[in-house]
Queue: 4 jobs
Job 1
Amino acid sequence: MKVITHDEAIKFIKPGMTIMIGGFLGVGTPEGIIDKIVENRIDNLTVIANDTATPERGIGKLIVNKLCKKVIVSHIGTNPETQRQMIAGELEVELVPQGTLAERVRAGGAGLGGILTPTGVGTIVENGKQIIEIEGKKYLLELPLKADVALIKAKKCDYYGNLVYNFTAENFNPLMAMAAELVIVEVEEIVPVGAIAPNEVRTPGVLIDYVVVAGVK
């Protein structure tokens, strides 16, 4: 784990990459890194996230600035601009049931070939997907999700990179930390090694490549 600036972090994110971004309606989203993506106009991105937040917050800023070519999310209901771009054919949107999305990310991190879920059977969600029947019940085979870079947010870390999240701001962040080739975390503070009890660690530092501190440019 290495502590770097936001400007250094942004050099790892290239146009056309697939990136995972933690957060739920902007809570638990690395806002500082997103602001740098917008500032540097890094575009043609495929973003995997729970949602696209709102136009003025989190991933919504990437949508408003038209930096995404595709999003894989569980819903877009809180961002009218995402809806407009989708209807206009300016943005590809893949909607995935929230639990299925989480498990697909988990499968990507665990090296699994996919997951079986009954969610979506008999709906448009099953279109184009393999249906597997087990003991008389139908399941959809959902493929794993992985990314070039995961951008996550934590409340604090120690100098080994061990992370602690702030309550529900944890959301998708731990899963995404396991499912990308490179992981950059934005933290509110860095504390000495030993200041975080082992049983408080939610994401071990071995998964973290780089750390940036929120508010420090």
Job 2
Amino acid sequence: MKILAINPGSTSTKIAVYKDQNPVLVSNIRHTIEELSRFPEVIDQFEFRKSLVLQELEKNGIPFEFDAVIGRGGLVKPIPGGVYRVNDVLKEDTKHAMRTHACNLGGLIADELAASLPGCPAFIADPGVVDELDERARLTGSPLLPRITIWHALNQKAIARRYAKEQGTTYEKLNLVICHLGGGISVAAHRHGKAIDANNALDGEGPFSPERAGTLPAGQLIDLCFSGKFTKDELKKRIAGHAGLAAHLGTTDVAAIVKAIEAGDKKAELVIDAMIYNIAKTIGGAATALYGKVDAILLTGGIAYSEYVISRLKERISFLAPVAVYPGEDEMEALAMNAIGALKGELPIQTYK
């Protein structure tokens, strides 16, 4: 089986071609600010990014012949995890997604490319809006503000399946707490193949991270909103973008921060250790969603490469369950394996409604 996977990001478009389990091409096409500034809206980048995908395939001598094309899922309405065939309803909701992000282009590009190949389906899988929350996890103290979850569903579920396979079992038989450590940090409690609790890692819940503020004191935040000191857009950036490590230390580079700590920077040490402390508390909270019956805690994402962070995080959480570390993320492999699983009948193809 030959699969084309497409993953549009804020400043790049990643593509991969897999033949069965093996990568034939993995490419990361970078976009400059000048290139993207030509487009008023992210959706306007569609033709630009699609043409770059086709050019990259041609440049690498890869014939345009695929059994499936799969794109990174967009920020559509909340849906259960799994593989979805791109249909008209999904495309319409993606074009009018609740939040603007380049990932919204993934399924649209996949659909248009697949349409030119006879019998070739277009898929998305485990988008960031996957919602499998226990209903008790959804309620807050205000009926006006139910919890929503936006998290690293694709990578978390791929890592869960990888860990299960290594243990000679299946994702559906395990209770796991998984933490993705990236620019945003998501923590989810996975019970027998469903993420019954997960934070909104994009814009307002959980531990603070390199770029996100995480959970904030509600009363103080309201006062700040009406202080007249900031516009709405400026405050949004104080939650996602210029927040977390970026706000405290002026950088999101964890390796550079650790070097500063080793050189005696006490402020950097306090901030990074506070982040670790908050991550550990969130992981502990996720364990309670599973009644403490946790088969393993899995740590993944780019920050998982940091021995400083991982060693200190383990000190706080290892009493809960065995800890396994999977540094980085391989969303391209995850997309390809989801497409192959769907074609083989190992994963059900779901209908977006």
Job 3
Amino acid sequence: MSARILVVDDVDVNVRLLEAKLTIEYYDVLTCNDGATALDLATEHQPDMILLDVMMPGMDGFETCRRLKARAETRHIPVVLVTALDGREDRIRGLEAGADDFLTKPIDDVVLFARVKSLTRLKQVMDELREREESSRRMGVDGEGGARLRSEGGRVLIIDDDASQAQTIAAELGREHRVSIESDPEAALATAKGPLDLIIVNVSAESFDGLRVVALAKSGDARRAPILAIVEPKERPRMVKALELGATDILPRPIDPEELSARARTQIRRKRYTDFLRQKLDSSLEMAVTDALTGLHNRRYMTGQLQALVGRAAHGGATVAVLVLDIDHFKSVNDGFGHDAGDEVLAEFAVRLATNVRAVDVPCRMGGEEFVVVMPGASLEDARIVAERIRRDIASAPFRVMGGKELLTITISIGVAATTGAGDTPEALLKRADEGVYEAKAGGRNKVIAKAA
């Protein structure tokens, strides 16, 4: 489906004109004539971009934009203010309200479509991250809730061969951000350390091709950083090309300090929002396969790994072994000292377990006091030797719980099994190891029992 654009203007002729232009280019267009309706439509239909007239009766474009950006459901939608006004104060006021850019009437079609493509491309990236994050939330693996995203304290890289202009930009942004200047673009992009929150490129530079710098930045290590392109207003083709290559905003020369600050804040805030979504996604994915108490992998991760490894072994690949470990008399720890002490035992046990297996092994918590170690490439005897090492380490030193007030002697029973050939399955492998655990417990506990097929 093509991008969906909401056009808001109280003048029907203007609405129909923009609707016709966008429809010809295969955009899906929604329209309305006032700010209140725009808020409702944006919430319901989630457009990819909003073209919002400034001069409307009642709620004007500035206030409508401010309310859009204040709502969690719509703050991620790019807003372009369309106005007959071209004054500095109006641009700054719009940027402070959260607008992403301005289009001045009469609208230049080339600039319009360049801006539409640039902003809808950005919105689609955000949508993908938001959808994945929402999927993780529905699965019950959501991380921390919302965060207040700051727009100051960003790391800004200025790439400009005009020393005076670069210093002016640095002086203005240096009040809120950490700014560095580089006149050699290749050196700047090659040596940039750590995450950048904003790259400012003079695309009208004389000593290098600014458009090439934009293209390199969007394909290199700094590709996630937004790019603010400085351009002469009369150089319309260069401005359009910069947007096509991935610049996220345009700053016309001569540079207005307040407009510069406002645009930088907008870009950095958006960058931090996308970073926040990515961080939540990474955290959710980690939570989906990690046991919260011990930090080991969980049953879900173990099942996937074991399925793949046993499948390869069944088709002539390397053998895989498993250890099933059960803490002896763990119920008595919970009953005698409380569940907090039990959790301390489990956490310490996980540390000792992880430090006694091989680097390629996968230690997991199955649930309760039961653990599994998946051992790629290990034979039954290899796995038995490792299991004995773990058993000795657990029994050799007491577990300190309740702030060191109590010392508990802990032992474990371990069952060991390894794949046997083409007919083996993960279920059969785990069942043999479980049988080893039962036999170890029946034989007095604190034992390792290896079960061949």
Job 4
Amino acid sequence: MFYIIGLGLSDEKDITLRGLEAIKSSTRVYLEAYTSILMINQRRLEDFYQKQLILADRDMVETQSDEILKDADKEDVSLLVVGDPFGATTHTDIILRARALNIPTRVVHNASIMNAVGACGLQLYNFGQTVSLVFFTDTWKPDSFYDRIKENVKLGMHTLVLLDIKVKEQSEENLARGRKIYEPPRYMSIHTAVSQLLETEASRNEGILSSTDTLAIALSRVGGGSENERIVAGTLQELRDHPSAAFGEPLHSLVIVGKRLHHLEVDYAETYAIKRDSWRDVASRVYGCALD
């Protein structure tokens, strides 16, 4: 059996009992380590699960999946992923590869940012399409995410923006020269995300994202009741001007608040507002939310 097991969002104790049983029965256990990160190191996982973990980087998961799936039709093999297994298309792909090889598969679900985002007080029913925001470079500034946000804005829906991470990435020079030298890990900050959003708005000039009239909520390390969890709400400009330390450690996510904003959402998220008066003013004046 090939198991793909969600680890949740916080630490080693977020594993489900079903997931832990599958790990203990497996002859090999891989830890996928590039679509997201846990808040703890690998050793703590190994001590808790009482299993040695094989680190699976991008190359192994995407181009060497046969190594992971080897003999999984005869014995139990597990692939551990942060969050929920279906939080990244990479994991869907490896399940399809296993099925093509007639290997029985089983998915063990867990919490992911897709549902833990509700911690900010916005109702999950009011979210539209989720988008990913990648690091801009001097020569590459993809803006397809803007069209998805625009579609959500027109429907009044909230948008969850997943911020880029760079793990085991090569510079253009090292890639061109075939040198296996990797850059230090990078995790997109809220400041970078907001700056790129507003830069794209200035380029597209379609009035979708306003620095002063668009509400947003920044999230860091949500899930599992972590003491490192941070939630900060405000306009895009307020988030851009806020001290970077206030957003906490990565990973970060950002929510663009939609116009179908309910007064209970305003009241709940107000707890996290940089400026409560500003938060309520924009919610009432721009979003048309009826507040007491």
